[in-house]
Structure formats: C-alpha cells, structure tokens
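Re: folding output
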Amino acid sequence: MTWSSALRKSVRTGLTVERTTLTPLLALRSALGVAIVIGLMLWFGTPKLAVSSAFGAFAAGVAIFQRSWRPRPVLALAVAVGLAVSTFLGYVAAHDHLLFAALLGVWTLLAGMAWAIGPVSGLVATQTVAVMLVTVTLPTSVSGALHHAGLIAFGGLVQATLIVLLPIRPWGLQRDALADALAAEADYARRLRHDPVARFDPQPLMDAREAAELTPRQARSRPRQLGGPRGVAERIRPVLASLADPVLGAPAEGPERDRARDLLGAAASVLDSVARAIRWGRPVRLSAEAVDTLEVPESGPILDGAARRSALRLIALLGDAVEATDEPVRTTAPRNGEPKRETKGEPKREHRHLLRPSVPRLVPVVLRALRREARWSSPIGRHGVRVAVVALIGYALGSALPLGHGYWVPLTSVMVMRPDFGQTYSRGVGRFVGTVVGVLIAGALMALFHPGTWVCAALAVLCIGLMYLLMGTGYSVASACIAGYVVFLLGIAGEGWSQTVQARVALTLLGGLLAMAAYALFPTWETPRLRDRLADWLEANGRYSLAVLGVFAEPAEARPRRVREALLDSRAARTAWEDATARALTEPVRHRGISRTAERAAESALATMGRATMLMEAHLPERSTDPSKGAAAFAGALRTALPAAATAVRERRAPDWSAPRAALDAWRAEAGDTGVAVRGTELLTDALEELAAALSPGPGGRNRAARRL
C-alpha cells in the first residue's frame, strides 16, 4: 500500500462512526460519579480543586468501560492509585524543568511498555502520563502534591463505591462472552448445513475462556450458569465439524446427509436457546421441533459409522449444555467458605475454575512481560522508546510556544500513539477533528450564554456522560465530547473560553502531527514479520497435530491436557497471524518476503491443517484401544520435519514434507487400516503440501496457490 492510500484509509477509519450497543445505565452511573466529585469540591472547596479532582473520576470511569474481566471496582481503584502516584510525582518534580523532563521520559517509557501486559493496562498507563502533564501548571509544594493526589484518588474511590452500591447487570461481561461463544457455534452449525467445510473463528471461544478465569473471591459468587457450558461448548465444536465433514462424517448426498443437516439445525436451535438463557440469567426454553429432531429415530434415515458416533456424542453434549444452564442462578460455594452439604443420593460435584492471579500475584507476571518485550526488535519496546521521545519533544515545544496550555502537545501525542501504524494515524485524525468540533460547539455555548460556575459544571457532566455513552461509536465522537468537557471545566475555573479554543485546536494539531511524524520516521512495520508469524502458526499447529496423533499412537498413555494446551497454543498463534495481517493491510509498505496471493493461500492451508486435526480429535480412541504403529510412524516423521519446515518458511523457502507423505503412504498400505485417523491424516498431509505449494518461490508456486484459492 502506498503512503497516499494508507493516509486515505486512516482518515476514513478515524472519522468512521460505528453503530454499537449503547449502555445508558452504565454511562449514567459513571457520569454520576464525576458529578458527585465536582459538586462536592465546588460546595466545600474551590473551582480549581473541582477541576483537578474531576480527572480521577473521569479516568476511572473510562477504565470501567474497557474490555477487562477484572471486577469493575478493582479497575476503578487501580486507576485511582496510578493517577494519584503520577500526580504526586509530577507535582514534586514540576518546579524543575529538567527534573520533570527526566521523570516524564522514564514514566512515558514505562507507560508505553505497559502495552505488553494488555490493552487495558496500556490505556490506564497512558492516562497516568496525561494527568502528570496536566499537573505541570498547578502549585508544586509537597503538601499541595499530597492534597491533589488524594483528590484524584478520591474520584476513583467514588466510582468504585457507586459500582458496589448501584450494581448494573453483575457478571454481564462474562455472560455476554459465554453467550457469544455459544451463539457463534450455533451460527457455525447452520453454516455447516450448506458448507460442510465452513471455517470457524475461534475468537469467541478464546474470549469465553479469558472471561472464565476467576480470582478466588470471584469463584465464590460466580453464577452457576457460567460454570459448565463453556467446557461443553469447547467439546461441541469438533463434533459439529466431524458430523458435517463429507470424509469423516455423513456422506455428501443422500438420506444420511439430510439427517445430518437436521441434527445441525437442531443443534443450532439448542445452542441459541442456551446462549439466551446465559445472557439474561433465565431458564432454557427449547423448541419442540429441535427436541424431536435430537431423539434417536426408530425408523427413517439413520447415520452409520463415524457419523453415527458424532451424532450420538453431539446429542449427549447438547444435553449436558442444557443441564448445566437450566438451573436457578446460585453461588458455587457458601460465602463463609464452609463446604456445601450434599443431599443423600446426589452425586458429588466439584466446582472448578480457571485461576486468575490476584493483584499482588500479578507483579511477577508483569515483570516477565516487560522483560520479554524489553528488546529493540519488539514492537512494544520500540513503541515505548518512540512515545517517550515524542513526549519530551512535545513538552519542549509546548513550553516554548507562547500559546499557554503547552502540555496539550505531549498530551495529545501520548493519547494518540499506539504500537501499530493504523491506530496511531486514524486516532490522530479522529482526535483533531473531534477536538475542533467539540471546542467550537462548547466555545459557542460559552460565548452566547456566559454560563456560571454551576451551569458549566452541569454542562461538563453532560459532555462526559455523552462520552461514556458514545465512546464505542468512534474515537472522533469521544474526542469531541472530551473537548467540550475540557472547555466547560476550564469555564468552572474562570479561564477565557476564546483563548482555550484557539490554543487547544492549534496545540492538538501540533501534537497529532508530531505523533504521526514520529511513526513515519521511526516505524515498527508488521509486514516484514509476516513470515515469522506464519512459521509460529505452523509450529503451533504441528504441536497440536502431534498431540492428537500421539493419542492414536498410544491410547493407554493419552493426556487430554496436552491436547488441550496444544489447541490453545494453535488458536493463539492463529490469532496473532490474523492480527498481524490486519495491521499489515494498513501499512504503507510493500509486502516483502510473501505476496498477498501466497499469504492467503498459506493461511487457507494452515486453517485446513488445524481443521483436519480437530476432526481427528473428535474421534480420539479409548484407552483400551490397540496402539497404532502407523500413527506413531507418521507422528515421528512430522516431528522430525517440522523444525526444518518452520525454518524454511522464515527463510523464504518451500518446506519439505516428503518424509510425512512417505509415512502416510506406508500407513495407508497396511491391510484393513482405513479408519478415521488415516483419513484425517490424509487431509492434514494435503494441507501441508498446499502450504509448500503456496510458498514455493517462482511463478509456478504462486500460480498453484492462486488456483487453489
């Protein structure tokens, strides 16, 4: 993509207003927190204290709306503590420009590195830099620093208190994540009726798994509906694919295919019903037609062989999903920690959950993440250096210009910059346009009506309430609301609106241009790294295939946990590849090392490889089954060929799969061994050879890849 095309796309993305689900009650509660803080400070303090303390409540409210599985009060308190610390340090160092510049550089570098922990951590760290920049203009005594830091923390405490006192749809994010995963599988089942090899995006299942990670405190109050269906959903997906597959499931045409389509449709209906029950905490309501379809027929078309095993397992799993969901919502254990008494004759149930480390135990996790990304080749590491340098340059330029409010230059740059090109440029455009619109509207209201202090406070709360409500629709809309919020806050403090408008527009433009120029001069392109991402996905897929084949080779030594962990690694690698290709599409860099045609063909081949392994996983043998020497031989050949193949992908060579193909031919030649494992391995080997054809240098390989697409 050329620079002109990339810039045009960034402008369109930055100005796009998306349709999204609004949460008015959540927005109203967060705006109420800001209103309480501003009102108390105006009533008992001064307008300047109200302006200063409002930032804590505002930032804590923004963090509440982020996609995080931590309890909302914990998020609000964590933001309050971070803002209070940065406020205090900024006050203490503000009297000396050199000392403050050194503090700003180190703090911004760490804030940029915080993206290694996660997007929510990166956003919160960015806000701590913003509040540090704002404190430059305020008094710098130590007692004043402690006072203002306490006010900032008070704002976050108010938001956390409101969350506890006014709960709105508790466990709502976790319910939505699990319901979305089940709804995605229902859609997958419907698509399989017409396309037996339809692709499935595992992202909803990955989100549901993240949402299921609980701290011990959360585990004691998690609704029963959120406990069991996720594991069932994970097991249903390969069964759906196996039933629909024309090679390992029902035949492509005939009465058995019609029966498979009916079962898939009924499964979709049941999964949708379970998803609705989980989303709203209600009992499951199943349609009579779906229940009748899932009954084993006494006559008519009946499935046979592997398809029949898949159908029976699907019916059992759907029953487990309904049973795990169709109960009143209750806690998993008594709040006092005593063991739950069991009813006589009732089987003992063990409530297990994925462990999420508590806040103190996050410290070593954070340190490992920072150490992992603290290298020059890391995009996060380069982002940290980039944003620190830009913040220092912006601080120097803002201080030198005679416009006042010079901190808006580095503040805009820091808020705009992200670790990738597309987000940085689109946010820069959205920030500037939103700021212009916001300050013009707010400035016009100030000029026409000259509102008093309390009216300005009410207008500021209205703007921030609109921001909370509309922040998911686009960055330009949120920026417009924030700009109006700032104008009215400064109106509370008695500053002239006309100077505020002119200075903010000019300095925001300068900060945005500085951020864009920094990425152009010191980029971190994803495009040259695509082959590395592809090789990582190949290695992860290979480990998943080896784990499944290992069960066929030695059923008595099967380790389901090993298969599960390999599947999760494969999903993570696939997601990393898809994210990388999405970022590469926005970059003004020619594809180096892999063409777009080869990229799409290689992605299709690896997706097919993962699907073939998943089909075999749906038919894993029992522990009492005899070992398969053919599976062991093929697994050995694949294990030997995999490292060299990954190296070949990175070095722009076609991988060699001749040894696995020979092992498959020998396995297939064994008398009577034509089961699921052989047919699944054939699909897997074909996918590996498609990958080799897609990555073969020269026009021959590219033409073969294009024909396969």
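--- second protein (sequence, then structure) ---
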Amino acid sequence: MRLTATHASAARSGRVKTIAAVGMAGLALVAVAGCGAGRTNGGGSGSGLVIGTTDKIFSLDPAAAYDHGSLVPETQIYQQLLNFAPGATTATPDVAQQCGFSTPTTFSCTVKSGLKFANGDPLTAASVKFSFDRMLKINDPNGPASLLGNLDHTDAPDASTVVFTLKNANDQTFAPVLATQAGPIVDEKVFPADKVLDDDAVVKAKGYSGPYTITSYDKNKLVQYQANPDYNGILGKPKTATVSEKYYASSDNLKLDIQNGNIDVAYRSLSPTDLESLGKNDKLAVHSNPGGELRYIVFNLNTMPGNTPEQKLAVRKAVASSLDREALSTGVYKGTYQPAYSPVPQGYPGAIEPYKTIYGEKPDKAEAAKFLSDAGVQAPVTLNLQYNPDHYGSSSSEEYAAVKSQLEATGLFKVNLQSTEWVTYSKERVHDGYPVFQMGWFPDYPDADDYLTPFFAPNNFLQNHFEDPGLTAQMIAEATEQDKDKRTAIIEQIQTEMAQNFLSIIPLLSGKQVAVSTKGVQGVESTLDPSTKFRFSVLSK
C-alpha cells in the first residue's frame, strides 16, 4: 500500500503502488487519548469488539487511498464488483452477480438487483460506471488509479450491466484488480466526479454499501462501526454488530492493552520481541498466516554510485553478494520474516529464487570485489542508504543497522545510514532524494504479477528510473497469457532476468500476517490471508 508518487500509465496496466508504501505497511504516528486506560466508551463494551492498531488512515475516499491503513476501513464500508472471500485467492462476485470476458477486450458484469447504499440510494450499474470513471478522472497521486491502467473505458448500457473495454486483450489480472483498492463502488449522488471527498463528508453521507457503517469518526484515534442491515454481499451478515478500532502512537501501548485485555485484537504492528513475549501469555493467542509482505532495497538508477550504467550495475551486484538474509531473519525478526531471494515471495505460482542461485545465501566478498574491479569501480564505495523508522515497524532501525554492518564487513562499502519520518520520506524518495532506500510491499491481490508490473514497468511506483523494453514486453506477455504453464514460465524468466541483468531492487525478507487476540475471539486466522484484507465481519467473541 503507497502514497505520493504520480502514477503514469505503464506498458500493460500502468499499475503502480505507492507503498503505504502496502505498501500497504505499519503507520504509527498519531497519539491516542487514554491508551492503556481500558475500553473506550461505546466502543468495545458488551458484545462489541475493540481492535487496536498502529496503522494510520490516509483517506476514506477510495480515489485517494492506496495504503494499508486506509484499506482496513475501506474493507468494512465498501463493496466491490468482485471481492476475495476469507481464505480465497480467486476473486468472486460481490456487487456483481457474475462477471467474465464477453470478447478478448471486453469484460462484462451483471449487477445484482435491489442493492442500495447505506443511505438508501440505489446501487446500480450506473454507480459502478461512475466509480471507475471517477477513479480514472481524479487520478489522485496518492490513490490507486494506476491499477486500472489497462482499462480504456467503462459503459453501463442498462441498470444491471457493466462493460469494461480493455486496452490489452485477455488480461488475466483484470478480475482480481476489481477486488483491489481501485474497485470500491461509491454513490454517484454523494461523491464528486472530479475531486476527493473529505473523510467527515464520507462518514456523514454514507455513500457506501459494505458490511459496516461508521457511526463515530475521530481520525487515527478512534473509529466506531455498526453492522449495516442492508448489506448483501460475499461476506454475509457480520458476526459482531459493533466494532471499534483504536489507533496507537506506539507498539508499546498496543502491546500493553492487548496484554491487559483492554482490547480484543491487536493487528499491526507489534515487534518480533513483543510477539514472542505475548505468545507466552496463556490468555492470548498469536495468529499468523502467509501474507505476501516484501521488504527490499531500492536503487535510484540516476543518483546511486557509479559513473556509467555498467558501474552502477556492478555496485548493485556487489551489494547482492554481500548480504546475509538469514541473519536478518533470525537476528532481527526472530523468524517472523523469511529470507527473500526474488521479488515474488515463495508460495506464489511461478516463484523461484534467482538471487540465491546467482549471488548465494551468504556474503561472498571475493565475488563482490570482482564485480566492482571488473567494472573499474574503486572500493570502498560510499552508499547513502535511507530507511524509515515509523512506517515499516519499529525493527527497521535494527534491520538497517544490520544491513550496514554486513556491507561494511566486506571492506567494499562505506554506508552512510540515515532515517526519515514517513511523511517526509514518502515525498523525498520520489523526487530523487535518496540514492538507495528501504521500501516494503503488501500485494494488491494474490498473483505473481503484482510483484512484477508495479515494480518494473515504465513509470513504476518506485520512481527509480528503471525501464527495459524487453522486460516490459515479457510482463505484458505473462499478464495476457491464458495458458497457466506458459504464463508460469514467463514469470520465472522475468525473475531470472531481473536478478541477472538489472537488480533495480534487492529483495531482503518476506513476512507473514500476524495478529494477537484474547482467547475468546474467533475468526482471526480466517481473515489473515493473501488478499491482505482484514475483515471485521468474520470476527466474534
């Protein structure tokens, strides 16, 4: 999830994700009144649930929200044509009754009859067309419009039919894209067609149709939800009528409140040490499932060290040969993250580990030195490495101190390590402010393409000046290939070529989704799935 880069249309879909840059990831900036003081009035008392988080909401308007903190309330209040049921990796009908390709370049959906928004306004095919037209027209730099880069235009020939005309035929990713943050359906009578609606207006107008409505909104402090009696969608009737989400400035207070039973669920983000400690508490349960999170280093190809493209590539290869991911996994994250040797995490169809094959599992000083000497690069190379201390979890400082130590241990690098708070970081990194920098990623949908096109297509969200026509052609080919085996082979080839010839990023770690609950809470593990959608409606106690 991703917040500040201006998104242009990339070769196939132009999909770029300005990590909430998921990346959609852990935001912990706003103080919460009364943290540790027990349940909030009207929030979690009685049969209701209280959920705690250090994430931060950027916007409730789907046109302006492309981050994990905003995805959580979006998941509760909005419906989409297609959505992911808990545990599912295939998008299935939600607002739609059915969807499918009517021709290679037209994707058609039939909208269920009798749907309405929480304010009583009818939800029809016209609402769907309006929502997608609006998303593309506003094209907010903080929003997910880039996910719709393959959408040429949308038609609603009647009240129950929506037809999407695509630029490239047989797009195998378009259906899951409809279930991402680019796909929420909004009320055309409420939302302006050409500008973002502020959060208070979104709450007041109730131009949404999801499982819950928002009854009280104190942004990034406390949000209270009530089950929507008119909801008719894939998630079914919410199991808990009232849910409150409480926002924390630090994971220390979040840990304290779940430990003391003042909240029912802690979801994002607790440190590995906290999770280890809480796992020993017999009144709590630690839930984890594969989540697809990726942590990686990005190189700005214009400003990184090296006088020529060949020298810059040699520096990147030398860095790749100097890292010990296993030490980061065990030493910093206590096994909650696993070594990543590809942009595509293991478990996704087509995922391989070319960085391990080419550069090894352990640091190889001799190989790293050879890359530099063969390209005429004098060691030690000065690397200005930037990381963020508040957005990707409190262990980022320890992680990047370890990266600095590993690189300098070879004698080939001198690392100037600096950190910047997220609000500044997210602006400066897209304006060539950082030669080498930390990023993280949560997938939009569970498919290998979501780890390739957003990173490596022209005008990608990283804004690091990487583009290769041959690789772009391969990404178009994999996304439009209908034969699964052929598509998998192309995905494997893209990963190999990236590792061998480009290395515009270096993957470090992949992580699970983790939440902690009191023992009486049910349904947590069922919503910790590859869609990264945390659904309040399946939770109960």
